[in-house]
């Protein structure tokens, strides 16, 4: 089995970024959604990104943000990848000249094949649990059986993942990557080093099969 990539999202502190990298994370997520308890400023994000070693991806998360606000972040923070969590159109996602992934909240009736076709320019689809009025970070999971095997975009699995279920998640879905935030926290926006380490062990355990 190929290696499953791991993104630790909602990083707000330098120490948490360091812990995630040392544990083997492939990417860290920085939230620029003002209503999130994990939001960071451009200044905070730039300081965190400056500490990342080569080959660790810095991902910026936006939710229906004004273009001027995204441009302002991009001027100050050298992000490698954008993550759009709202109702952004493919044209809007494409317009920033950055690689991006599109988050899909798994509401009833969602057609993932249609979404993959619509956002064909994306690097992948991030699949998250649906909760009305909440764009992500709910800590809830969805039914993984709803994910087709034949999507033509890489799947980033999110939504309610934690050290206790991540092995089953990887074995069941075989995603390109997994994304975790609240599942490795001591408190909102504060990561727990032991939980991050346990999460990484769970991912690697699934890959032994």
UniProtKB/TrEMBL annotation:
It comes from the Bacteria. Pathway: Amino-acid biosynthesis; L-tryptophan biosynthesis; L-tryptophan from chorismate: step 3/5. The keyword Isomerase applies. The keyword Chloroplast does not apply. Residues 6-200 form the N-(5'phosphoribosyl) anthranilate isomerase (PRAI) domain. It catalyses: N-(5-phospho-beta-D-ribosyl)anthranilate = 1-(2-carboxyphenylamino)-1-deoxy-D-ribulose 5-phosphate. Gene3D superfamilies: Aldolase class I. Its EC number is 5.3.1.24. One of its GO terms (biological process) is L-tryptophan biosynthetic process. Keywords: Amino-acid biosynthesis, Aromatic amino acid biosynthesis, Isomerase, Tryptophan biosynthesis. InterPro entries: Aldolase_TIM (IPR013785), PRAI_dom (IPR001240), RibuloseP-bd_barrel (IPR011060), TrpF_fam (IPR044643). GO terms for molecular function: phosphoribosylanthranilate isomerase activity. Transmembrane segments: none annotated. Belongs to the TrpF family. This is N-(5'-phosphoribosyl)anthranilate isomerase.
